[in-house]
Amino acid sequence: MRKDGAPPVNPVGKIFLCFETKPFLATLLAVTLVMVVWNLQPYYENLISATSRCSAATSPTESLPIKSTTLGGVTPLAEKKLVSSPPADPNKRTFQAYGNAAALFVQMGAYRGGPKTFAVVGLASKPIHVFGRPWYKCEWIPNNGNSSIRAKAYKMLPDWGYGRVYTVVVVNCTFAENPNADNSGGKLMVYAYYGESPRKYEKFTALEEAPGSYDEAKYRPPHKYEYLYCGSSLYGT
């Protein structure tokens, strides 16, 4: 007996199956390529913009040597002649504020009241004097190189009822001895403290005496003036 083999495969069916599979694969490949290109487009745009920025950033560096050559012809500041400022007018009143907000002390003048006494006149913050306890200290720094002399000052408030934000303050500095007895000159420093703590303060030069400017005869009778008024200059001269 003869055994029956497998039925013969129809070659026409194979051809039709091949024609049906290839278009599907081609369509799938085309769609895949389109999606890849579509996703890579922002990356290329960012890459192009980054390269353009880099080229723009490197362009000024190329011109730096040209700028450096032009700077070589500039004359140094030391070779220029400095114009001296005109001397300050002693008759012109200037306000020198020290401190923050409502100033702790605004110096308006200072003078020697005697061989051992100085007075510093100015304005001060009235709220600080109402709600706080500011105090002052004086120091004389001589020009002869000797050690400085210190003294605790006391304040006077002559116009307490007039001021609102500021009030007049007269700081009296009385030393144990004449700080400029040898007439070598020096300067009077004032320490203005915000409160009881000695850590927070303002330091300023209230008065300077040139060598040979002290005349003790002015403070012995007969005196040049009989009366001295200390008050606020805001209400008159």
Number of helices: 3
Strand order of the largest sheet: 1-2-3-7-6
* Amount of helix: 25-40%
The radius of gyration computed from the alpha-carbon positions, rounded to a whole number of angstroms, is 45 Å
What is the CATH class name of the largest domain?
Answer: Mainly Beta
Domain module count: 2
According to CATH, the fold-level topology of the largest domain is: Immunoglobulin-like
From the helix content, strand content and strand pairing, which structural class follows?
Answer: alpha+beta
Point out poorly predicted stretches: 1-6, 53-75
CATH arch. level architecture of the largest domain: Sandwich
Strand content: 25-35%
Membrane topology: Single-pass membrane protein
Organism: Sesamum calycinum
Main location: membrane
Protein name: Galactan beta-1,4-galactosyltransferase GALS1
Q: Would you give an account of this structure?
A:
- There is one protein chain.
- By secondary structure, the chain is α+β, with helices and mostly antiparallel strands.
- The chain has two domains: about 15-60; about 95-235, Immunoglobulin-like, CATH 2.60.40.
- It has three helices and nine strands; from the N terminus they run H-H-E-E-E-H-E-E-E-E-E-E.
- The chain has helices at about 10-60, 65-70, 125-130, and strands at about 95-100, 105-110, 115-125, 135-140, 150, 155, 165-175, 185-195, 200-210.
- The chain has a five-stranded antiparallel sheet. Strands 5-4-8-9 form a four-stranded antiparallel sheet, with no helix packed on it.
- A hairpin with a 7-residue loop joins strand 8 (about 185-195) and strand 9 (about 200-210).
- It is elongated.
